[in-house]
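Q: Hi! Curious about what cysteine desulfurase looks like structurally. Here's the sequence.
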Amino acid sequence: MIYLDNAATTPVLPEVSQAMLNTLNTTFGNPSSIHSYGRSAGKVIREARKTIAAILDAPARNIIFTSGGSEANNQALIGYALANRDKGNHIVVTAIEHHAVLHTVQYLQDRHGFDITLVKPNPDGSYTADLITNALRDDTIMVSTMYANNETGQILPIAEIAKRLKTHQAVYHVDAVQVMGKLSVHPIALGIDFLSASAHKFHGPKGVGFLYHGDLKFDNLIHGGEQENGRRAGTESIHNIVGMATALEISAQYLDSNYDKVSALKTHLLSELDGLDYYINAFGETMPHVLNLGFPGFNQDLLLMKLDLQGVAISTGSACTAGAIEPSHVLEAVYGKTSAKLKESVRVSLSDLTTPEDISEFVRILKSILAQK
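A: Let's find out. The predicted structure is below.
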């Protein structure tokens, strides 16, 4: 089996699964309990929070553990918007955001009357800080952009956007799900107010993530107990949190070498594709981990099915839209609704666990399928 869908989820590292198993076997106390078992569990969570905070170069008190990136996005967007309506009613997001952001702001518009601006890319697909700041109004209270796009790998000008927002009341939320564990991300240094991440994108378990937040006023999304410094109710998933902290710590340790490895894999892939009729959907600077390819005249669904039958896993875009018949909203934002590219483009996504042999075998199978057209 050749797995090239790492933007959807990554394999769990053996060290991570072992740390999780050890935690399940030894730390069963409720971290909110005051007896020794509870205190032991609470200490494990505190240490995991410190580990992640140190990697982000941020205070541990500003890290909330969540069930994943979607909850983190919801917490930041809904929590801040509802708590700060007295400052304004306008939110700015890009048209290429993950649905965890797009559907959340749509909810805020439909149920709470917020005014949402979807910023479309330039004709060449690029995003500049000017595009974002030109959408600002006096009543804008929040801007939300992804760090890197999950379908194309496009990197947005995060630092420049944050710099521009320092002279405006709007706070800045960044969906960093696709870059956490792959790039060095320090939200305070970058000027980010909220930052979302999910463990399963950097070889951690599914069902756990975190939200970095500045010292801002925002409503809780989940109500009940006083867990997570009173910011998120519910007994913490200790083994998942330990797995996430372990995965991020390992990723941070090998950050540069892993990035170089994936960059070399992308170069190898492009060299193997030489001679094929294809194009790349790339818009400015991109992460080497994600490559969006179009094969003229070859239906993406048929291609995916044929590859899957031969043991190769890739995708057409976000895993959260799997099974949906709608075309990619990311490519649609660039090419328009009627472009043939929306039906013939696929996503190949790599990780540091991908091998050159995986790439060569994938291309061999791909060529054999395309030759049958």
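A: A fun detail: The first strand starts at residue 2 and ends at 3.
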